[in-house]
Amino acid sequence: MSTKQNQKILRMVELAMLTALIVVLQLIGGFFKVGPVNLSFVLVPIVIGAVLLGPSGGAFLGGVFGLVVTVMSATGMDPTGVVLWGINPFLTALICMLKGIVAGLCSGLVYKAIPKKGIFGTAVAAVCAPIINTGLFIAGVALFFNDTLHEWAGGNNMLVYIITVLCGLNFLIEFCINLVLAPAMTTIINVISVKKNKI
Q1: How far is CA 47 from CA 3, 71, 95, 99, in A?
Q2: Which residue segment(s) compose the domain that 155 sits in?
Q3: pLDDT tens, position by position, for the chain (199 residues)?
Q4: 19-51 burial, b for 16+ CB within 10 Å, e for fewer?
Q5: 127: Cβ contacts below 8 Å, ≥ 6 apart
Q6: CA-to-CA distance for 140 and 95, rounded, in angstroms?
Q7: CATH value at residue 41
Q8: Angle, nearest 10°, between helix axes 89-113 and 79-87?
Q9: CB 15 within 8 A of CB 57
Q10: How far are the Cα atoms of 67, 74, 162, 180, 192 from residue 59, in angstroms, in the given order?
Q11: For residues 25 and 65, what is the distance between their CA atoms, to the nearest angstrom?
């Protein structure tokens, strides 16, 4: 078997393993809690994939994440998603898919653009994912579900509601998890890269 074929098979195996990890982490995400807030580790394998497999790998894994969130919204497993799904399933699916794909794609592009990779490059790619994921979710809800957003805010200032309730603590926890796990991600990436080079 040629080196090119080995690398292709290895890429497929890496994508399959990271895909399985994303599905499991998203489905059991509700079990990891600090008070009322879910701890979300699902962006970690997306970032690892974006760094190891490039922007296209990150976009694919982000799409897997978006698809799982869409299914959870359609089946009532995601409390926010189910409300939006009840109003407009197509736009809900569009937001879920777009935010995941773009977060994975941009993590890969950012990592690729940084000349000095290592822990700094991984950390920047890692914090890029929650910023884009949350930012696109808020933009999508504000654009397509503005009336619902006003209703959720209950007459309070919309910007304050978005910052404190809609994204607030969840975003900060996702951001911190990705930043804190950046050294571990770098180690995983380095080990896999060394093994790849031996093939």
Answers
A1: 26, 22, 20, 14
A2: 3-198
A3: 677 887 888 888 889 999 998 999 888 875 565 544 556 788 989 999 999 999 999 999 999 999 999 999 999 988 888 889 999 999 999 999 999 999 999 999 999 999 877 888 888 998 999 899 989 998 998 899 888 888 877 877 766 777 676 676 677 777 777 777 777 777 877 777 666 666 5
A4: bebbbebbeebeeeeeeeeeebbbbbbbbbbbb
A5: 175, 178, 179
A6: 6
A7: 1.10.1760.20
A8: 120
A9: yes
A10: 12, 22, 26, 23, 20
A11: 10
In this prediction the pTM is 0.85
User: Cα separation of 88 and 110, whole Å?
Assistant: 33
How many domains does the chain contain in total? Answer: 1
Q: CB-hemisphere CA count at 13 Å for 92? A: 22
Compute the distance between CA of residue 166 and CA of residue 35 in angstroms, rounded to an integer.
16
Structure tokens at 5: 């074929």
